[in-house]
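Hi all, posting the design record for the shared folder.

TITLE: backbone redesign
STEP: 1 of 1
STRUCTURE INPUT:
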């Protein structure tokens, strides 16, 4: 028997439906609530409350060793971003070339229409 299986069996003997996953969720929720209750948020702004929530959430995530996994669509998202950067770069080059060409044309027009001063 694996450690998880034997642990789940033991926990289920103690309380019907209790598993390691259920216990871990309970522990995280309990700890999170406890951390929030330790904060004095009665007269706090919404931003201060949000900061306290995020801080407690981070601490519980560290305690429970929660790690965000790489999304399944990560590679597609990265390729989309790379494509957008390439597209923007080529668009920028066209804009710069247009500006330079316009300046050259303006200078050419100025010199051809400028009267000669003696």
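Okay, here is what came back for every position:
SEQUENCE:
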């Amino acid at each position: 028997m694996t450690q998880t299986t034997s642990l789940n069996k033991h926990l289920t003997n103690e309380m019907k439906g209790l598993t390691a996953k259920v216990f871990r969720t309970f522990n995280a929720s309990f700890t999170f609530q406890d951390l929030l209750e330790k904060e004095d948020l009665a007269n706090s702004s919404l931003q201060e409350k949000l900061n306290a929530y995020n801080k407690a959430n981070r601490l519980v995530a560290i305690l429970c060793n929660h790690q965000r996994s790489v999304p399944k669509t990560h590679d597609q998202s990265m390729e989309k971003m790379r494509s957008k950067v390439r597209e923007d770069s080529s668009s920028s080059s066209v804009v710069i070339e247009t500006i330079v060409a316009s300046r050259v044309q303006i200078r050419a027009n100025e010199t051809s229409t400028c009267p000669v001063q003696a």
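COMMENT: DSSP finds four helices and no strands in the chain.
Let me know if anyone wants the other runs.
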